[in-house]
Amino acid sequence: SLVVLFGATAGAYGAKLGSDERELILLVWQVVDLPSKKVGTLHKSLVKADNLELSDQCREVTGLTPEGLGKAEPLDRVLQQFSQLVSSDLKVLGRSSYTLCSDGQLLIRQVLHPETSKKNFLLSDCFYSFYDLRKEFHTCYPSSAAVKDQTIKTMAEYLGLGTDETEEDFGVWQVKTMVAIIFSMLSESCNDIFTEPETVKCKYETGPCSKSETVDSETVIRARGLPWQSSDQDIARFFKGLNIAKGGVALCLNAQGRRNGEALVRFVNSEQRDLALERHKHHMGSRYIEVYKATGEEFLKIAGGTSNEVAQFLSKENQVIIRMRGLPFTATQEDVLGFLGPECPVTGGKEGLLFVKYPDGRPTGDAFVLFSCEEYAQNALKKHKEILGKRYIELFRSTAAEVQQVVLNRYMSTPLIPTLPTPIIPVIPPPYTIATGSVRDCVRLRGLPYTAGIDDILEFMGDATGDIKPHGVHMVLNQQGRPSGDAFIQMKSADKAFLVAQKCHKKMMKDRYVEVFQCSGEEMNFVLMGGTLNRSGLSPPPCKLPCLSPPAYAAFQTAAAVIPAEAALYQPQALLPATRTPQATAAAPPAVTYYPAQAAQLYMNYTAYYPSPPVSPTTVGYIAAPPGAVAAAATATHTPILPQPGALVRMQGLPYNTGMKEILSFFQGYQYAPDDYSGLIQLSDQARSVLQAPKEWVCL
Prior knowledge:
The chain is of the alpha+beta class. Among the domains are: 2-199, 2-Layer Sandwich (Nucleotidyltransferase, domain 5); 220-303, Alpha-Beta Plaits (2-Layer Sandwich); 313-413, RRM (RNA recognition motif) domain (Alpha-Beta Plaits); 442-529, Alpha-Beta Plaits (2-Layer Sandwich), CATH 3.30.70.330. The chain is built from 21 helices and 28 strands. The N and C termini lie far apart (75 Å).
């Protein structure tokens, strides 16, 4: 038996059904017994949505009103009634089993599965297998229109059936016509129809991927804007209803081995990929996710691997993978097993542990652990930031693709995913300061188009542009150097900031409306350093958290970091923010701040701030300059700052509780320059003694 099913949402209709995340508001169904060609009772049920606002198209097509829907039952109740009524109709017809039959893929894959997943209740097994009437029709009538161009009306017209939709209520005509189409197909004696139903995977399957595999570029998408802590299962849930290939979720990492908020997802065929693209800007929690086309080559670059060690580790399928970060370099397998304890048994004991090492064999402090079930993995995640030795350990959900990416590619000489900007040049603008304090003389722009530049912002501000302070526009970029959609603007007074916020709030820029909020210089600095500012209040950036910062590491201040001319040709990975303004001396070098050429012409500070993943120190990067400007910068004359090449060293991998005394003790026996770097990195008196460069240096 078939259960012919039709539905509608509060938003788009037809080919765009489900593309706008609107909720289901109507279900109509009827049981059809194929051998006897008998039908059951036709049922129509309204569904009460959480948001009763209906689109104009929905009102026009369905004739439904919010008032009528307000009296209906919610979706979970309607689905229970559906199961009960179908079972009752089957008994009358002397049948016990059935398969759904819908008009295309959208109702089941793009509406029912995503909505029930978001509302946290399970669909019955019958919704994981169904017949697509359009495909069955094209199989029976090969000369008809292509599957993607079929509709109930075009199929009925092809068969010469009546197509006057006004004779019946919306949904009722569609189901009756679908039943008539099915009976016409049965009369043609087509042997190949209703034999192979469409299936929906109920669970995402993990697994390794080899670089030798052939991946069709028509099956891969890139998801951007993911929460840092999202796992492969979270991404699979976002694409609920679509069939992801085994091991088809690959989380992207940056050159430092941290997740960058992107993932490549491989589907079983191009049809599923095309449906995934329709979920562009759908939400995962409170964040919207961008979905774009990608290539098979990109997927293999992230997910592919050939290491025997990794292959053996991942050979145990359907395991939950947890990543541990911050392990002491001396930690052994026994130490890790002891840390996890008996409540988190590791699959295979020591065989379920994989330590990540540098090419020379030194430990990186990372490890991957296998657990046989979700319960054990949850127990392990509860140990997040517990102490092992003298260090706290971070635990995150991980994926097979991340294991391969980290172990095989993270520590190559060439970064797997380039995330830092191209070379930068020094430009010496007039002196400026970033506002501090509690005076609310700044505004925050949120929701900017990603293609928006300074010119767009100035046009958006209109007449208020004249009230912007010099160098008062601050664009916020993400860790890959791409616009984050946020910007801060310093106004000449709090009154000007208030007027701008009132005038420009939710004003359109290109195809998006932009939110404009008044804020203070202190709040702006917190956000630029990686903190968050929302309705819940102000959350400090990671560098302000006591557990992550030594006492001398202060908040972001107004003074600009100064970089030597030689450094202008390289990409700085991180610069310490200034903690105080040094006393002026005759020998002090001139301050050199980095801007793009076009920003200098506009007298705007276009410094790029790169927020880091949770519990990571904030990285401050800079906007790239045109290649021609780099050559000009190389020939320019600047006051030399470094006494000799290689005199400044960077320490990486320090325990988080390391103090000044430990660092001084580590470098005991080496000679330090008295004051060479006070202009390069402005520090407190306590910190300056640590960062004096040695006159002589050896490799450690």
